[in-house]
Design goal:
The complex is a heterodimer of chains A (937) and B (115).
Chain A: H1 3-6, H2 15-40, H3 45-56, H4 59-80, H5 82-99, H6 101-129, E1 141-147, H7 163-171, E2 176-189, E3 196-201, H8 205-209, E4 215-216, E5 241-244, H9 246-253, E6 263-267, E7 274-282, E8 292-294, E9 297-299, E10 305-308, E11 325-330, H10 336-353, E12 361-366, H11 370-406, H12 409-417, H13 422-458, H14 473-499, H15 503-508, H16 520-551, E13 562-568, H17 586-598, E14 603-610, E15 627-629, H18 635-639, E16 645-649, H19 653-657, E17 661-664, E18 678-682, H20 683-689, E19 699-702, E20 722-728, E21 743-747, E22 759-766, H21 774-784, E23 790-796, H22 797-804, H23 806-840, H24 842-850, H25 855-889, H26 900-926, H27 930-936
Parallel strand pairs in A: 3-10, 5-7, 16-21, 18-20
Antiparallel strand pairs in A: 1-11, 1-12, 2-3, 2-6, 2-11, 4-7, 5-10, 6-7, 8-9, 13-22, 13-23, 14-16, 14-22, 15-19, 17-20, 18-21, 19-20
Chain B: E1 6-7, H1 12-23, E2 26-27, H2 28-38, E3 43-44, H3 50-59, E4 63-69, E5 75-81, H4 83-107
Parallel strand pairs in B: 1-3
Antiparallel strand pairs in B: 2-5, 4-5
Helix pairs in contact in B: 1-4
Classes of the chains: A alpha+beta (937), B alpha+beta (115).
């Protein structure tokens, strides 16, 4: 190919023009050559030209003929070039989209919402519910718990293991490559005031995870804690070792590699005694610990350092103390079933030896199945919801695409009859679908991204894991694929149908539309959409209703005008305050804190609560204390109660919190001497302890104590008996939907454990907005002893409450959002389809009106046509909701699935909106000008 | 134009063009000249009618066209025979041979007929 040809501008002109130019040039060349030849033979130039023209014949005629032949040829050549043809198809498709803006726009909206909303919701929920854990051996990893303990609070629940039981399971089975016990504790680094979380792990811990230390080595093998003397733990002896996590190493030691092998002082005892400990290694960065069942949640626990299990002096001989989370890795050649059989055999042997433990059975759960165990139904529900919305979106897209294609069957029939190639026309229709799918899909992906970001921004810090939410690729893929398949399928099928249509009939007007003439398929699509949307809408309504009830739960205290200030003291060894010689009693700090806060203008009262961290404060934590009451052995066991709260409060606490006194008295200054041990109990605790009897004057104590035989729970350092002097109202616990917190209150007096406390919660009642005083309160609190007192948190009781309802609020928001999306989809579907039907029936409607039909009647007819499938769908949706009601109940609080108000509102909304969506096209129908409509025909 | 020129039989023009192109690729005018030379100007054809015929054959894929520069630096559209064209020519030529032979037999003067 020569360059001149390549750069010939004419080649780039539109083909028709180019063809003409080429013909002209060719003819011109011919005429000129002929004239030149004649001239060469002696003819004079003018005559030669005339002669040439005469010989050539009618130039215009031949040019036209040539053009006709050649242009067709050029077009075919162009079409052979795929890109050219595609561009043409897309141009056409684009023009069509502009010509049918409503239907096209609605279809794109449906696609975008279906893909975007679903993906965003699923991604967000996944981040919130499922801790991530990637490990090559994750499939073989299991968590071992036990269940069926005598203690009622553990019945049916999975509980961790005691040390003895762990060793029994580990040593008497061989199905596991590793079986590792871990527990969590606080670690206090020398020179550091606050503790960090540490992990105590048995050996094999690193092998379990297949991890090599970044620096140094792993922990030495366990000393057998069952036989070693308890004093192996005493300070000064130690081969005590420690592994640091990468982050902690960076943070505390600045990534100094010489730290490995060095001995530093750490505290790990309850008193925080310093213990020399050797750092033997550093874990690699990005070290990931598997998610575990911890209490009632599934989570990945973070920690700063790993200590060997051998140090747990408290683990021996206490068969009913269960601090160990056990993780295992199955041997490659053994199955879960084998492992279970072996464990059960061990359990049976233990049961024979210790009859108390005969009911305890091992519970082995693969790590991969933990999410299902925890959120099985919720995940299923989430999937069902997402699939429903996706289905609605697909049905919607299907009906709109179908309507769009159906509206063109006239055009298609004409094209076929003019000899349009069947394949060519089908391709055109598919191209249109592709364009639709591409635009909708792109918008959907954008929406998914924006939605996920928005959720993270909307609920900052309120949900664990939310901040890490990223788009779930596979869900995005599935939704995109499904939506696009729908578009292509429903774009392509009518095209094929159209190509089979009886042309003669179609052109004669006998057959309107291909097989879609009755519009029945649209009615089914709409009805299904409405049914699904109603279920979602009802579900969301019920959840919202529950939420409203939840937030108006009787809290049992006055949440307004109260500030809760959590204060922290340094560990006893380096503090001025403590029980040691020369140390100031902690109680004095409490008094001074109260006095300092009460001196602030605007503060009307102050009290202090001392528990483990904030436990015991309303709305915080769950009770875990066992209580023994006089004359009744271990009430918890007998009555199937969960744990109790035991909280120490200073006088004035009940008055300040607005907790009502029901019987007897509250604490006064006289109770602070500790001469008489008194307690105030909550109403529900009283009911559980002494049902039907007067609790006043009765006595109780903490722990599981055998008072008659004087056998005491060794976890409690003394066994005072407290006399009940008062009964107060219940306060709500962290889980609002559960029973109120059963609480035992004792004064903050010396001797009740508070003297060892390293902190507490100062409660401050204010006359105005409590948060306005937060700064002043903080200053006053720290001002008591700037060197030692730290304020770790200041919250209003009101914000504590909104934290508690953050999770349900989040779920209501998510489901509500999806329900609204579903509703919008359905409405757009109803509107789009009815608009299409009105357009189709234009000539017929025109004829009716020309024959005297009242516009009103036409409007009613179209309305009826639009609303019939909506009504059908609504009935179906209601039936489905009631059928699913059982399933929903566990997600509802104080609302039945058939709640008439919710059902009524949902029905009215869905139906009302659908009626509105139908009204617009129906009105349009009644405004048809008969003359116009008939002329069209 | 000679008054005794013969009207071209339908379809035979195409065949003749293919035959000429078999010798060598040519532009339209060249084909015309060659045709006239070979038939001693006996055929009565508008020279312009050559072009729709060429375009038709191009469309049928019997010949292909490309622009080239001629000796005196003018652009000329040169036609050449394609594979399909060569096959078509063979078929047409064979047919023509049979056809003209048959017609020739009929038209040949019989002995003794003049008489």
């Amino acid at each position: 190919m020569n360059l001149k040809r390549l750069f010939d501008i004419r080649r780039w002109l539109p083909s028709r023009r180019r063809t003409r130019d080429e013909i002209d040039e060719e003819f011109h060349f011919h005429l000129q050559q002929r004239a030149l030849d004649s001239e060469a033979e002696g003819m004079d130039p003018a005559e030669a030209r005339r002669d040439a023209e005469q010989r050539f014949g009618d130039i215009r005629h031949y040019r036209e003929q040539g053009e006709k032949v050649l242009h067709g040829h050029a077009r075919r050549q162009a079409r052979a070039s795929f890109a050219d043809g595609l561009m043409q198809d897309f141009r056409l498709a684009f023009r069509l989209a502009l010509r049918t803006p409503t239907v096209t726009g609605l279809a794109i909206l449906a696609l975008a919402l279906g893909i975007g909303a679903n993906t965003a919701v699923f991604s967000v929920m996944e981040a919130v519910l499922l801790p991530s854990f990637d490990h090559p051996d994750a499939d073989r990893m299991v968590q071992l718990n036990t269940t069926g303990l005598q203690e009622a609070w553990a019945q049916g629940r999975a509980v961790p293991l005691s040390a003895d039981r762990y060793f029994e399971y580990r040593d008497q089975t061989d199905a596991f490559e590793q079986l590792v016990a871990v527990s969590f504790g606080n670690l206090l680094l020398e020179g550091q005031l606050r503790t960090t979380l540490s992990l105590t792990a048995s050996d094999g811990f690193l092998d379990l995870l297949g991890v090599q230390p970044l620096l140094g080595r792993g922990l030495s093998r366990d000393v057998d804690v069952r036989r070693g003397p308890a004093s192996t733990f005493s300070p000064g002896t130690s081969n005590l070792e420690m592994l640091l996590t990468y982050d902690f190493w960076q943070e505390k030691f600045g990534g100094d590699s010489t730290v490995v092998g060095r001995t530093v002082n750490f505290g790990a005892t309850r008193e925080g005694d310093p213990i020399p400990r050797r750092i033997v290694g550093v874990l690699p960065p990005g070290f990931q610990f598997p998610p575990m069942r911890v209490g009632r949640s599934l989570r990945t626990v973070g920690f700063a350092a790993v200590l060997p299990l051998s140090e747990g002096f408290w683990v021996r001989d206490v068969r009913n103390y269960n601090p160990f989370f056990v993780l295992g890795k199955l041997r490659e050649d053994s199955s879960l079933e084998q492992a279970r059989t072996q464990l059960e055999a061990v359990a049976a042997r233990i049961g024979a030896q210790y009859p108390d433990e005969a009911t305890i059975v091992p519970l082995l759960t693969p790590i991969r199945e933990l999410p299902r165990v925890f959120y099985g139904r919720s995940l299923l529900l989430l999937w069902a919801i997402v699939v429903s919305v996706l289905l609605i979106a697909c049905l919607n897209v299907a009906s709109l695409v179908l309507a769009r294609t159906a509206a063109r069957d006239g055009e298609l029939a004409v094209r076929y009859s003019l000899g349009g190639a069947r394949r060519r026309i089908v391709r055109q229709l598919v191209t249109e679908s592709v364009l639709l799918a591409a635009v909708g899909g792109a918008l959907g992906v954008a929406l998914a991204w924006a939605g996920t970001r928005a959720a993270v921004a909307l609920f900052p810090g309120s949900m664990r894991g939310l901040a890490d939410a990223t788009i779930n690729g596979s869900v995005l893929g599935i939704t995109v694929l499904l939506s696009l398949t729908t578009v292509l399928l429903f774009g392509w099928a009518p095209a094929v149908l159209a190509s089979r249509v009886n042309l003669a009939e179609r052109l004669k007007g006998i057959s309107r539309g291909f097989t879609l003439s009755s519009g029945r398929i649209f009615q089914w699509l709409v009805a299904t959409e409405v049914a699904l949307a109603l279920v979602l809408f009802l579900g969301a309504g019920l959840l919202l209703n529950s939420f409203i009830r939840l937030t108006s739960v009787e809290l049992g205290f006055d949440r307004d005008h109260v500030l809760a200030v959590t204060v922290d003291l340094p560990r006893a060894q380096i503090s001025k305050y403590g029980t040691g010689e020369g140390q100031i009693p902690v109680g004095d700090v409490h008094d001074r804190l109260i006095a300092a806060v009460e001196a602030i203008p605007g503060v009307t009262g102050s009290s202090i609560l001392v528990g483990s961290r904030r436990a015991g404060l309303p709305l915080v934590g769950r009770g875990g204390t066992d209580i023994t009451v006089e004359d009744r052995h271990r009430p918890g066991v007998e009555q199937g109660l969960s744990g109790f709260f035991w909280t120490n409060v200073s006088p004035g606490y009940f008055e300040l919190m607005g907790i009502p006194l029901l019987a007897g008295r509250t604490f006064g200054p006289q109770d602070m001497s500790g001469t008489e041990d008194v307690a105030v109990i909550s109403e529900s605790a009283a009911l559980k302890f002494w049902p039907g009897a007067d609790p006043l004057g009765k006595r109780l104590t903490w722990g599981q104590q055998d008072l008659e035989n004087e056998i005491y729970d060794r976890r409690y350092y003394n066994h005072r008996l407290f006399t009940v002097v008062g009964v107060v109202g219940d306060v709500a616990s962290a889980d609002l939907t559960e029973d109120a917190a059963r609480t035992v209150y004792s004064p903050t007096a010396r001797g009740y454990g508070t003297e060892y406390a390293r902190g507490g919660v100062v409660l401050v009642r204010t006359s105005g907005d409590p948060s306005a005083l937060a700064g002043a309160v903080r200053e006053a609190v720290i001002g008591v002893d700037e060197a030692e007192i730290e304020v770790t948190e200041i919250v209003t009781m009101r914000s504590l409450f909104s934290d508690v309802v953050a999770q349900p609020r989040f779920y209501v928001f998510i489901l509500g959002l999806l329900a609204v999306v579903a509703l919008v989809l359905v409405l757009s579907g109803v509107y789009g389809v009815l608009t299409y039907m009105v357009n189709r029936r234009r000539p017929e409607l025109g004829l009716r009106m020309a024959l005297g039909a009242h516009p009103e009647a036409v409007r009613t007819m179209m309305l009826r046509q639009g609303l019939t499938p909506v009504a059908l769908g609504a009935v179906g949706g209601l039936a489905l909701t009631f059928y699913l009601g059982r399933f929903l109940t566990s997600y509802l609080f104080d609302v039945r699935p058939s709640d008439p108000l919710t059902v009524g509102v949902a029905l009215t909304l869905v139906f009302g909106m659908a009626a509105l969506a139908c009204y617009l096209p129906a009105r349009h129908a009644s405004a048809i000008d008969p003359v116009d409509a008939l002329r069209m025909e | 134009m000679p008054s005794d020129a013969i009207e071209v039989l339908k379809g035979t023009l195409d065949m003749m063009v293919l035959k000429i192109l078999e010798e060598e690729p040519q532009h339209g005018y060249g084909i015309t000249r060659r045709l006239q030379a070979l038939t001693d100007d006996a055929l009565q054809v508008d020279e312009g009618s050559m072009y729709p015929a060429l375009y038709r054959m191009q469309k049928r894929g019997l010949i292909e066209a490309e622009w080239f520069l001629t000796d005196n630096s003018r652009r000329a559209k040169i036609y050449s025979l394609t594979r399909a064209g060569r096959d078509e020519l063979m078929r047409e030529a064979a047919y023509w041979k049979r056809f003209s032979g048959a017609v020739g037999k009929v038209m040949a003067p019989k002995p003794g007929a003049i008489g």
